[in-house]
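Internal tracking record. Fields below are filled automatically when a chain is submitted to the structure queue. Please do not edit lines marked as system-generated. If the sequence contains nonstandard residues, flag them in the REMARKS field before resubmitting.
Queue: standard
Priority: normal
Entity type: single polypeptide chain
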Amino acid sequence: MSPSDRTRAGYWLLATGYWLLVVNGPAASGQRIAWEALPDHIRAAVEGWLGSPVVSATTQTGGFSPGVASRLVAADGRRVFVKAVCASPNRDAPRFHRREIKIAGALPASAPAPRLLWSMDEGGDGWVVLAFEDVEGRQPVLPWKLDELGRVLDAMVALSESLTPSPLGDDVAESVVNWLNRHGRGWNRLLEDPLPGLDEWTIRHMIDLAKLEGQASTAAKGDTLPLRYARRQRAADA
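SYSTEM-GENERATED OUTPUT FOLLOWS
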């Protein structure tokens, strides 16, 4: 995709429900739990599914999930990416992972995304575990480089094409329009009742951001299954 094509893709992504905002802020950092800190029975379940003991575990530091996010290598050479959470310290985290199991498990093979290989759910406040294909690569550097941004845009376009029409029903993936109508007023609320200590950038752009937010429901109408949050830590430059 040429630079001019990527510019058009940016507008297209906006028009079909994607919000393209390139920000060179600090890297995200969540409360990760090391693989070794998982309860013995959870590690045993993963290794039982793998059919081989884990000999190496590398924690992935980007992102916000308060749980395990590790690239595992088994004794037989198999590699997988494993995510795991329980209700401590975030009671909402299991719900998000359960939803991810439904969505990732329903994605078509044509989608340019790592396959969900296995999952387990203890129910209630217990552990929820997902095992994905491991993808070799690294996160894009900050500040963004044009060539890496271009590859991310290429991937987003390919993803949207493979997920139109959406392969998931409303019972699995809620309409973005419905979600925005309920929750998509953050900038407008901030404009109506500004918090103390807002930074200069926010104050300068708050009105424009509130206007864009007001157009979000209209822009999001369509039949594509979109990636709602296209954050840097969710991209791998392979």
